[in-house]
Structures are given as C-alpha cells and as structure tokens.
UniProtKB/TrEMBL annotation:
It is found in: Secreted. It holds the Pfam family Inhibitor_I9. Belongs to the peptidase S8 family. This is Subtilisin-like protease. It comes from Turnera subulata. Residues 1-21 form the signal peptide. GO terms for biological process: proteolysis; response to symbiotic bacterium. Gene3D superfamilies: 2.60.40.2310, 3.50.30.30, Peptidase S8 propeptide/proteinase inhibitor I9, Peptidase S8/S53 domain. The active site is at D137, H201, S526. Residues 635-734 form the Subtilisin-like protease fibronectin type-III domain.
Amino acid sequence: MAQILAFVIIALHLLASIVHGSLDQERKTYIVYMGDVKRPAISTVQEHHNLLFSAIGDRDLARKSKIYSYKRSFNGFAARLLPHEVNRLSDEEGVVSVFESRINKLHTTRSWDFLGMTRDVARKPRRESDTIVAMFDSGIYMDSPSFKDGGYGPPPAKWKGKCVTAGNFTGCNNKVIGARFYDLEFINPDEEASPVDTDGHGTHTASTVAGDAVKGASLYGIGRGIARGGVPFGRIAVYKVCWSGGCTDSDILAAYDDAIADGVDIINLSLGGRPRNFLEDPIAIGSFHAMKKGILSSCSAGNEGPYIGTVQNNAPWLMTVAATAMDRQFMTEVKLGNGMTTNGISLNTFTPKKAMYPLISGALASNITKDDYGNASACDPRTLDMNKVRGKIVYCLGTSNQDYTIWKLRGAGVIMSMDEPTDIAFPTLIPGTFIISKIGNEIDKYINTTKDPVGVVYKTRAVNMSAPFVASFSSRGPQKITLNILKPDVAAPGLSILAAYSRLATVTGDSDDRRHPLFNIISGTSMSCPHATAAAAYVKTFHPDWSPAAIKSSLMTTATPMKIKDAEEELGYGAGQINPREAVHPGLVYDTSLSDYIAFLCKEGYNSSLINLLFGTRNKYKCSDFGPAKGTDGLNYPSMHMQLKDVNSSVSAVFYRTVTNVGFGTSVYKASVKSPKGLSIQVIPDTLTFDKLHQKQDFKVVVKGGPMTGETYVLSGLLEWTDSKHSVRSPIVIYRPLMHI
Ligand SMILES: *C1O[C@H](CO)[C@@H](O)[C@H](O)[C@H]1NC(C)=O
Ligand SMILES: *[C@@H]1O[C@H](CO)[C@@H](O)[C@H](O)[C@H]1NC(C)=O
Ligand SMILES: *[C@@H]1O[C@H](CO)[C@@H](O)[C@H](O)[C@H]1NC(C)=O
Ligand SMILES: *[C@@H]1O[C@H](CO)[C@@H](O)[C@H](O)[C@H]1NC(C)=O
Ligand SMILES: *[C@@H]1O[C@H](CO)[C@@H](O)[C@H](O)[C@H]1NC(C)=O
Ligand SMILES: *[C@@H]1O[C@H](CO)[C@@H](O)[C@H](O)[C@H]1NC(C)=O
Ligand SMILES: *[C@@H]1O[C@H](CO)[C@@H](O)[C@H](O)[C@H]1NC(C)=O
Ligand SMILES: *[C@@H]1O[C@H](CO)[C@@H](O)[C@H](O)[C@H]1NC(C)=O
C-alpha cells in the first residue's frame, strides 16, 4: 500500500514537472477585454493581478504570465494563458471577452489632384496644424524630406503623447510630434526596438496622410511630380505596431489605449485580419473607444479581392476604405529585333545601356533533363544554365519572382508572362516586365524561329488611362459580421501610389536590392486608407464639432459613384470614390449618437450587462429602455443594405433614417430614386423641409421585390436628396446569397 502511494506521489510529481516544463509552449497570448475604464476604481493593475491570480492559482506565475495592462482608454490586459484559465477568466464578472491575440497583416503626387484637391484648394492651415493623425503602422523614417518641420510651431496644447527614442530613431520634430513602438509578445527579437521604419510601409502611409509637399519626387524618374499629403500641415503621431512578423492584436490594442489618451484626432490603420465578432476584434474594440471620444478610425478593406465576401474591418463605427485606380498607369515597353513592340506592366527603374540585348527563353536555357528537377520554362531556380542566361533577357512562363533567379544567373533582364491581366505594377530587381501570355506566346515564337533573337525592356513610364475603377486586389463585400451594413464604405486611390519611403528599405523589399529610394510606388488598400484618413482630417478642419459618424457621412454621401463594370461593383466600392472638396459641404448628414449605437448593439444581440461594461457604467443602460433599433439594419447609416436569407427570398426591407441639416438655414430637399429592374423603392416622405440649421428630419425607405432569378446576386439602386446646391447620395444594395461565401 505504501509502495503504491509512493508511486502515485512520484507519478504526480512527474506529471507536475511535465506540466511545468511544457508551460511556456502551451501558453498562448490572450487578450482579456473588460470594457471601459472604471472611475473611481481600485488600481486597475491590481484588479488585473487579482483576476489572474484567481484564474491561475499561483501568485508568482500570475505575475509572470501578464504581458500588459490596458488602462488609459479602456480596461483589459494581455497574458499568457492555458485553456482552462481562459475559461475561468471568461466567467468572471466584469470580463467582456477573452480572445487569442492573433497576427494581422499590413495590407502621390498624382493621387490628390485626381481627387480634385489641387494644391490651391481652400484650406484651414491653422486648424490643420492642430490636427493630429495617428498612424498605426511599421514606424517612420525621419530623414525623409516629407517630414521636415520648418514653419511648424510647437505641438498643439491638447497633445499628451511621447516621443520614445532608441537606436536609429533619434527624435521627433514639430511635424512628427510623437512616436512609440510595441512588441509586447517579443515576436521580433532581431529587429531594432525603436519606432524606426525599416519596411517603408509606415513612412509611405504617413506621408500620404500628412507629408509636406516635396517638389520633383519620383522613383528614379518614374511618376515625377509633387509628393504631398492630404493634410500637409497636419501633425503625425507614430505608433509602430507592425514588424516583419506582422502586427499582433495585443500591440494594436496597446496603441489604441495610448493614442486615445494622447489626444489624437484621427486614427488610420492599414492593417487587418479575418473578420471577427466585434468583442473579439481589437480594431473594433479600439475604434469603439476612440469613437466614444470623438476620434474617427479609418481602416483598409483588405487585399483579398477580387473575390466577394472578403472585406475586413466591418464595425459600423469604422470607415472602411477600398482601393481604386487613378487615371495613371505604369507601362513598360518591350521591343523585339523584328520590330514588334508591346506594353507590359511593372515598375522598371533601369534605362537600357544598349539598343538591343540577346533574348532567350527559359525552355531553351534549360540545363535539366527531366521535369522532376523543376520547370525550366517557368525559369524555376536551379533549372537554367548560367552560361546560356548570362547577359541575356530571359522569357519565362508564369509570375514567381523570376527576376531574382535571373539576377543570380547574371541575366540582363526578364519578361514574365501572366495568364490574367493585372492592374498592379510590381517593381523588378533587374530590367523586367509582366505581359499577358497571348503576347508572350508571340515573343516565344520569335525566339524559337529566329537565329539570334534580340530584344529590349525600356524604363517604365506613366501613361493616362480611364478611371476610376476598383483595383483588382481590393477586398469586396458582402461582410459577414453585421450582415445589413454595407462594407466597404468608400473608395480612394490605392493603386501605384508614389509617396515617401524609408532609406532603410529597398525598392523590392529584397535585401539584395541596392536601391534605397526616398520615394517609392506601391499598391494596396493600405495606400487608399491614408487618402480617406486625410480627407476626414480635412473635413474636420472645417467642422471641428462634427462627430466621427457625421464626418464619415459627409465623405460617403458626396462620393462619386463609379463606372459599373460588373454587377457586384458596389460590393467593391460602397458609396463611391471620395471627393474631399464636396465633403466639406454635404448639405445633410446621417449622424449617429452613442444611444443609436446602444440600440444597434442591443438589436445585434448584445445584452444590457455587456453594454454597461462597454460603456464603463453600472446598470445605467437597459436594452429595454432603447427599444429594439428599428428597421432592417437598425442604424442611421449613410448607405442601405440587405443580405437576403437565401437564394429564393423575396426582398422586403425598411430603412429608418434621420438627416441633420448642415447646409443652409432654410431649405427644401426632394428625394429622387433610381431603382433597378425588379426592385421598387419608396421614400416616405419624399420632401423634407428645414427652417433652421442643425434641424433633424426623419424619413423611411421601403424596398420591395420578388425573388431574384438567374445568376443575379446584386441589385443596386440610389437615393438622392437634392436642394438647389447639394446632392446627398446613398447607395441601396440588396445581396442574394447565390453561393456559400
Ligand atoms: C493608414 O491607412 C493605410 C492604408 O490602409 C495603412 O496602411 C496604414 O497602416 C494606416 N495607418 C494607421 C495609423 O492606421
Ligand atoms: C541602424 O540601422 C542600421 C541599418 O539598418 C543597422 O545596421 C544598425 O544596426 C542600426 N543601429 C542600431 C543602433 O540598431
Ligand atoms: C544548372 O545550372 C545551375 C546554375 O547555372 C546549377 O545550379 C545546377 O546545378 C545545374 N543543374 C544541372 C542539372 O546541371
Ligand atoms: C511550367 O510553368 C508554367 C507556368 O506556370 C505552366 O504553364 C507549365 O504548365 C509548367 N510546365 C510543367 C511541365 O509543369
Ligand atoms: C518554343 O520552344 C520551346 C522549347 O522547344 C517550347 O517549349 C515552346 O512551346 C515553343 N514555343 C512556341 C510558341 O512555339
Ligand atoms: C494625361 O492627362 C493629363 C491631364 O488629364 C494631360 O495633361 C496629359 O497631357 C495627358 N498625357 C497624355 C500622354 O495623354
Ligand atoms: C449577457 O451575455 C453574456 C455573453 O453572451 C452572458 O455571459 C451573460 O450571462 C448575459 N447576461 C444576461 C444578464 O443575460
Ligand atoms: C429555390 O427555388 C428553386 C426553384 O423553385 C428550387 O429548385 C430550389 O430548391 C430552391 N432553393 C432553396 C434553397 O430553397
């Protein structure tokens, strides 16, 4: 018996040591979100320790497992936890949600002119210079000419932030007034712990929002012009949350906790991940607390297009931005020895040194006997003979970074063929371009049938094209979280944007690339979001008292609807391409108050106890007091959207709306409606009379239709309120789930 007992005890010890030994691998970082900060309260940090102790049962381990306490702008903490501890914490009173910290991804000269904001546009420079734009991104490169601070006074008095200096980051100035960095989970031990930008992304987005005007900016002569931000007098506060390993939830929340308390006006995020329930989504949580303080967050829609159902950052208090193409495209011309010329797409900064170069294809330069070693036609690594490639331009099938392979083999250039045309111009490490395979085939034929084939790839140049249209990569709706809110909200240029860059990065991002430019041309919804952020900041300089919802409404209802190429286009661009100049004078706005959001959250199924945690109140709000929010979507949103339950559902939607007069004192607005075939849209009443500013008027929009037939899955109409001076436009979009998304 004693022996058996001893064995059991030893076994238990063994078990305990196994558990202890594996603790660190099994623990994962979780966020414990606890709603608004409570005041007055016992020390928030003490409260976090007590909760962790009761979940873990060991004071020392509890202390070690905590990573960070959020306490300036909302309440919560990040900690390394085991599954059963997560369950215990989820049951604690005061805890809204517990979710694993995930990793998110980072998703101009010409662009501002294209949006109608020429250099001489009316500005409020004094107010602009009081506007602080927070950039949650990969940091900033201070030596860029876009961030010179000549002529700027000291930071606005409301600024309570910090400039954290370390390593290569030696300080801020009166343009970039703050900089912090977060790597709470230590996932980037090899990178310098400082706000410095070694990627280029953060520098690019910051200069697009608020960069100073720089004349003669270009990427080695390509796209030359004046590079400037949308609010060139604005101040920048940098919150570095993105590293080579991505951007973690815990870091994004820490940045929100600080930025809100630091006194910023607008937060711009060019990052995101898979859509999640609002209470487990750090961007939705952070932006919710920002919204309560009157700060608008503007976010990129994601780069998962053109597939539908891919839009990210879906909370109704966010402004979600899609990417469009400007009227400028980058073409790279190719010429062959037989006189044939063709246009490819790329960013080739190299000017040819000779009139013509010998030309060869991967197939003919092969040094492998069997396909098992790789695909020589596609110029796979280790399939080509260096002696056949050296000094030649190589034609390769497919697009898989062949520029790097050919560079290694001392080739003179590369022509890559692609099956589908693309609108994105990618930089190449050596002279190179992408062409569609139909033309590629002709080049291949020329190579096969000519004794000494020759060709040349010219330097890229900018050409005009008709625009705007939604960029291929821009994520499309419908969204999957709040089904009846249309996302993305608006679109802004995001294709081939020239803006400041970090000299610590290279043109291609490849460390073998020797080009460290001060400006670079890149594409992404990351590039479109700063345009919308700056437009919002610009509107705010004219209307400092407007709520984030009113500013977003003004940008949405004045947006330019785009050319419809495909039926689903509204799922790609929302209300249209922003028009900042018009947004200053929208006439009417669809405003949203905190109590509207409470009613909306109640309708979405959040109960009174959760609402009170979110608002940091004790039993103050009851869903029953607000009644269920009315109508199909339950929110006073500037666009109208419904996702049908299934393929055969009839359409029956009612949207209740309230508009606030921000135009002239006395005015009469008349409704006009564009309905697509198969949909009836009725506006009740169809005339709104205002006799003073800030007056509100209610109306409703009733949408009816039979089941949609055939392959149709989007029906879109338009509501437009007009007086003599304003046109207030809202898209009405019905989505039918044809396929499972
Ligand atoms: C601003 O928006 C761009 C585009 O979405 C994004 O890349 C960047 O990270 C954003 N910055 C902030 C502060 O959110
Ligand atoms: C500064 O940046 C350079 C270039 O990336 C790097 O080699 C150096 O280590 C950095 N300095 C510090 C102090 O980290
Ligand atoms: C083909 O050439 C490449 C480099 O030119 C070399 O790395 C590879 O080993 C060669 N393969 C064969 C099968 O000779
Ligand atoms: C080689 O790659 C190209 C382009 O991706 C493809 O079309 C072709 O079928 C491949 N060939 C083989 C033998 O796999
Ligand atoms: C050119 O020759 C290569 C190698 O024989 C072959 O794979 C390719 O299909 C030919 N191209 C054309 C267009 O005939
Ligand atoms: C492109 O458009 C701009 C303005 O729309 C015009 O000034 C310019 O001449 C055009 N360039 C070409 C090459 O057509
Ligand atoms: C409110 O919702 C939360 C989470 O769904 C749940 O845990 C809680 O019990 C609910 N409270 C009430 C009073 O229904
Ligand atoms: C929709 O209607 C069609 C034709 O009446 C029918 O074949 C199909 O099963 C229906 N689908 C659903 C999901 O009800």
